[in-house]
Fold this protein.
Amino acid sequence: MKPPPFVYCRPGDLAEALAVLAEHGDEARPLAGGQSLVPMLNHRLARPGVLVDIGAIEELQRMERRPSDWLIGATVTQRRVERHRVEGCELLRLAMPYIGHRQIRARGTIGGSIAHADPAAELPAVALTVDATMVAAGRDGERAIDASSFFAGPYMNSLEDGEVLSHVIFPVLPSTTRCSFKEFARRKGDFAVAGIAAAVDITDRAVSTARLTAFAIGSNPVRLTGAEEALAGRSLDAAALTDASEAAAAEVEPWDDIHGSPQYRRQLVAALLQRALQEVAP
Ligand SMILES: Cc1cc2nc3c(=O)[nH]c(=O)nc-3n(C[C@H](O)[C@H](O)[C@H](O)COP(=O)(O)OP(=O)(O)OC[C@H]3O[C@@H](n4cnc5c(N)ncnc54)[C@H](O)[C@@H]3O)c2cc1C
């Protein structure tokens, strides 16, 4: 398959990219690693007239450890983060190897994956679990968007026309937080049929805060607030794990597709959550 015709431009700075996006409106689309957009073009699922390659914009390639968070530029590749290990942001490190294959992660970007908002993608689930902040750049400046309001449905985000995701801020979690990332896929490198991201803060052997997210089960990743509440103040013993996984299975509303029925996905959510909690238990 070949893509429909398009005009390609590769601006050298963000201001220029924003000007081109503003000039062409919804005819134009940013191109990052191309690992999702290029297949979409080839399958004619997207037909932008103008592709704005943001790969040469230096300010989108920053990766900085600040006192309480990591600032990761939108075009930082997934592989770069994987190799860096991002101390203090363990969930990000744990999730990275599940994204496709190494060759894909060498091109695919942090911002591209989050902006693309694939319901089965790992990075949106990580962002939601750790309460990451997405920073959108537009011609009028920057604005911050919480992960809880960024994902607006399958393959939809809450960026305005003409805005670019410029960077993502991942908070550094306390050293008492233990993380686990579990997913089930039919083959290594495939998109998940269901997955769990967990960051559990444990003080004096009891859960002080549990952040649990299920993904690949519906339009967007979802926080498992029922399961989080079921764990509050408890030690991670067998009864707590059972209560949390039952709460998770009851609160999700999985979709039905060729990869799994809602009932099957509910069971996967419960089983993956059990495994994640076993892993973080002291
Ligand atoms: C075989 C294969 C297997 C894969 N498996 C997985 C997997 O298991 N898990 C997973 O999560 N992903 C998987 N992917 C997708 C991959 O991770 C992509 O890297 C990711 O989805 C998109 O990142 P990208 O940088 O390639 O973005 P692109 O493909 O360039 O762009 C994707 C979309 O985001 C928009 N966009 C990109 N950057 C920005 C920005 N800064 N601001 C605003 N909009 C932007 C584009 O306009 C486009 O609409 C797979 C891809 C392939 C080809």
Observations:
- The first helix runs from residue 14 to 24.
